[in-house]
Amino acid sequence: MTRALARQAGILAATFLGLFFVTFAIGRLMPLDPVLAVTGPDISDEIYQQVRAEMGLDDPIIVQFFRYTWQVARLDFGTSIVTRETVAADILRVFPATLELATAGTLIGMLIGVPAGIAAAVWRGGVVDAVVRVLTLVGYSAPVFWKGLMLLLVFYVWLGWVEGPGRIDVVWEGMVEPVTGIIILDAAMAGEWEMVQNAFGHLILPAVSLGYGAAAYIGRMTRSFMLDQMRQEYVTAARAKGLSELRIVVRHVLPNCAVQLITAVALTYGLLLEGAVLTETVFAWPGLGQYMTRAMFNADMNAVLGGTFVIGAVFVALNLAADTLYRVLDPRAG
């Protein structure tokens, strides 16, 4: 156990060191001048060199890297040149919106993808399998922005069944004190049920847009895991004993797929947190993706690197959690 923990700690430390290096390299390789981003283009060479020296950009690259690593380890990402607030404070403000959207999308993906994958595996080669494979192919291949625009056009513009872009109507903004940063939870804790309904109406379309892609991936993986297990000898033995197909699937096949599904869902969650940029842009969702996009257009490298590091750290944490659950559910993996 001690050796396993030490090995895991070493892997985690090496992963974060690599993450530090990658984000540092992005900041140095981007074709944006951090000095001009702060001062503007109309400055003299003397002021340019002075600001460059104050920012530490004249120091040796190894010194800059270790200084950056020490700052990030203390969650100091600098100050955003757009908001004039610390990047850490900005991320704390916008990340709950991305977390809310990615969580809803992952739940939709699980609720649709897992049953669809099971049905496709059980009725392999039939109509159900063909329909599931076509729908998952479309969900996996269709551009995110196209799915978002189509959902807005049909369900908001034409049918008017749900709320439009944004996270909540303007009339509800600032009505409750943010506690978790997740509007639905904060409104529910405050007893503002009309606000909960309004926030949920805004969440549906972007969550379905993300969730469809997640369901496609989870469905395909579930089908693959199920088919692999259904070829095993224990399934043949269970059928020889006269067990029903439903009992075999529920009592034997699904438990053996659980550890693989956990990994697939964790990776999906991380990808949704990382890849919600286009969805947030289409639906004007004020999350981390939209924050980083705006920062990129304004050459706000502190904000870009801070957001990149946070997403990377979340992805590492999700992989670590999935690996830990994998070992708990299947001791043979240890």
UniProtKB/TrEMBL annotation:
The chain crosses the membrane at residues 12-30, 101-123, 135-159, 199-219, 261-283, 303-322. Its main location: membrane. It comes from the Bacteria. The keyword Plastid does not apply. Keywords: Cell membrane, Membrane, Transmembrane, Transmembrane helix, Transport. It is found in: Cell membrane. Residues 95-326 form the ABC transmembrane type-1 domain. PROSITE patterns: ABC_TM1 (PS50928). It is a multi-pass membrane protein. The keyword Heme does not apply. InterPro entries: BPD_transp_1_N, MetI-like, MetI-like_sf. Belongs to the binding-protein-dependent transport system permease family. PANTHER family: D,D-DIPEPTIDE TRANSPORT SYSTEM PERMEASE PROTEIN DDPB-RELATED (PTHR43163:SF8), DIPEPTIDE TRANSPORT SYSTEM PERMEASE PROTEIN DPPB-RELATED (PTHR43163). This is ABC transporter permease. It comes from Falsiroseomonas frigidaquae.
